[in-house]
Amino acid sequence: MSNPFDTALSTLRAASEVAGLEPNVVKFLSQPKRIFQFSIPLKLDNGDLEIFTAYRVHYNDALGQTKNGTRFVPDLDLDTVKALGFWMTIKHAVAGIPAGGGKGGIKVDPKKLSEGELERLTRAYIRKLPMKGAWVDIPGADIGTSAKTQAWMLDEYEEIMGFHSPAAINDKPAEVNGTVGSMEATGTGAFFVTMEAVKDLSIPKGSTVVFQGFGNVGRIAARLLYKEGYKVIAVSDINGGIVKLDGFNVNELESYVDKEGTVAGFPGSRPISNQELLELNCDILMPAAVQSVITEENANNIKAKLILECANGPITPNGEKILEDRGIKVVPDVVTNCGSAIVCSFERTQGLTDTYWDIETVNSKLKERIVKAYRETVETADLKKTSMRNAAWVNALTKLSNSMKARGWV
Ligand code: NAD
What we know:
Blueprint (H helix, E strand, L loop, with lengths): L3 H16 L3 H7 L4 E10 L5 E12 L5 E3 L1 E4 L4 H17 L5 E8 L7 H14 L8 E3 L7 H15 L23 H16 L7 E5 L3 H12 L3 E7 L2 E4 L6 H11 L9 E3 L1 H5 L5 E4 L18 E3 L8 H9 L3 E3 L1 H4 L2 H15 L5 H26 L3 H19 L4
Parallel strand pairs: 3-5, 3-6, 4-5, 7-8, 7-11, 11-12, 12-13
Antiparallel strand pairs: 1-2, 2-5, 8-9, 9-10
Helix pairs in contact: 1-3, 1-14, 3-14, 4-5, 6-7, 6-12, 6-13, 12-13, 13-14
The structure holds nicotinamide-adenine-dinucleotide (NAD).
Family: Belongs to the Glu/Leu/Phe/Val dehydrogenases family.
Pfam families: ELFV_dehydrog, ELFV_dehydrog_N
InterPro entries: Aminoacid_DH-like_N_sf, Glu/Leu/Phe/Val/Trp_DH, Glu/Leu/Phe/Val/Trp_DH_C, Glu/Leu/Phe/Val/Trp_DH_dimer, Glu/Leu/Phe/Val_DH_AS, Glu_DH, NAD(P)-bd_dom_sf, NAD_bind_Glu_DH
């Protein structure tokens, strides 16, 4: 199934059956509350005019104001934005965050723009966004956006409003009243979840870990697991993978990647393809790159005991059925990678109270919140005799359903 919104709806249908949701709740959740689509005309540096298509979806705001990512990619379409908004709604509910799910972006290749063009486009996006603000909808970063674009967005918003409002935009740098720890939040959160899962499965320190993807998320989680005494035996990026069966010194590997821009060629390692890497003999597998890498084609060859979905949707539904039959434990994306959603919520809280926390406070609150989400998921999975993915969705949908009923929406 290639349409991401169809995938989101099929997970909704499967989980609503397990949760025993009323048909009206499912009907309500099968479409976004609001969709904005608008054009942004931009005069390029060479004088040409280009018109860009922009989107923002408020999927569901029963639990609080909508918030999250803004994606600048050339192939953005409305169904992708709807699916991402839905997943954010679920992620916030799983993590116990008082927020709804929002997502948006512009169909653009930011690499083809000059810095000045990118700034003008980003500011125009905020000017033209019909509903925004700390109590309405808070755009954050996603693919193609960064702390820099978020600082421009905040500045533009504050210019429009005529007052400071640091809680109106997320993922901005600490220098403009952002939060510390936001860049590391997803990898750090994935590490906290891994520590709980290894306790449950009695996987001891010294066990082997494999990472697909060594970017923001994979790298931070690998660093923390290495520090904790786990043996990282293989890592990869878009250029391919490397393996070292007695384990990498992850600090040295990071310095190498900073210099070379890739893991390929790290001294003392053997090259391996991304496909082979997934099938390596290991205890823990962390897919932290892209979606749909474990499918019915390779699920039978996976040897890990535990898989933590650091990326969004790395396991297809058919692949997951096979893993489930083989007794391989999967911690789903909405639990494993909700660290950044949690810290974004902390960023808003800090902005609203104009009080800024240190990294120890951010990380200890992150740990408390994400471990609670993991524990609640395990409890529901045991109770309902279902997968962790269904359990996480059941918990989220139940919270959403209760709030929508109390509000009189269904
Ligand atoms: P990133 O761009 O920093 O790193 C991605 C890594 O994956 C890089 O090492 C890249 O070379 C590698 N990669 C890309 N395509 C690949 C391919 N086809 N095969 C193998 N490796 C490939 O991204 P990130 O922020 O680390 O995010 C990783 C994943 O986690 C993405 O799926 C993202 O959507 C998801 N995610 C990220 C966050 C976050 O806060 N960064 C939050 C939730 C989910």
